[in-house]
Specification:
214 residues, alpha+beta, 5-stranded antiparallel sheet, 4-stranded mixed sheet, 19% helix, elongated
Length: 214
């Protein structure tokens, strides 16, 4: 049985996602973060996975234990969490602010290098969703003073541990890969370890604080 597309709340739609899931469409990244947090703590039996993205959340179920109609009712009735003052897991990531694009980014933002570093480290970041590569987390904060465009020409190889900015996000490259983010620093933190019980250091909802490493 599939779920028919429907609007369940103002600014929230539920769409079919194959035979084992539904897709929730919302209006903003803040909506994703708040709704994901609420769904994550009320997971019903039969839920296989919650997959947040920039404007959607995928809900994957075992339809034998959690019928899609029941899953759709669950997501439609769940109000987003109020995350102000929440006590979610917090991780500090030490950063050397030595990125190739640091001065250019500071210029784009009308800041000095020191002001850019101070703003990046003072900001309270939260993992909105993961993707692009195993362990790559898209980090959002509660202001837009660090919003910068991607590079016009992506680099063919960005070193592992590079800390960057792109659009409304900050992130850390878990391994060497092509990329178009503006690089402002580097870290020795291990973002992805396939041999670990929890391979990814950062999961959706995790709070992150960048700390300058001198």
């Amino acid at each position: 049985m599939t779920v028919r597309p429907m609007t369940v709340r103002a600014g929230r739609r539920v769409l079919p996602l194959g035979d084992h899931g539904i897709l929730i469409e919302v209006e903003s990244l803040d909506d994703v973060i708040g709704l994901y947090a609420a769904l994550d703590v009320t997971r019903p039996e039969g839920l296989v996975d919650l997959v947040p993205a920039a404007r959607t959340i995928g809900v994957i179920v075992d339809p034998v234990r959690l019928p899609l109609s029941v899953a759709a009712a669950w997501v439609s009735e769940t109000a987003p969490a109020d995350l102000s003052g929440s006590e979610s897991q917090s991780i500090e990531i030490p950063v050397r602010y030595d990125g190739e694009d640091l001065d250019e980014v500071a210029g784009l933002l009308g800041l000095t290098r020191a002001e850019l570093v101070a703003l990046h480290t003072a900001s309270d970041w939260r993992v909105a969703f993961c993707g692009f590569a195993p362990g790559f987390a898209y980090l959002a904060t509660d202001h837009d003073r660090l919003r910068v465009p991607r590079r016009d020409t992506p680099r063919p190889s960005v070193p592992a541990g590079s800390v960057g900015l792109a659009g409304e996000f900050s992130g850390v490259y878990p391994r060497s890969s092509p990329g178009g983010w503006q690089l402002i620093g580097s870290t020795d933190a291990v973002l992805w370890d396939a041999s670990a019980e929890r391979p990814a250091l950062l999961a959706p909802g995790t709070r992150v604080r960048f700390v300058e490493q001198r």
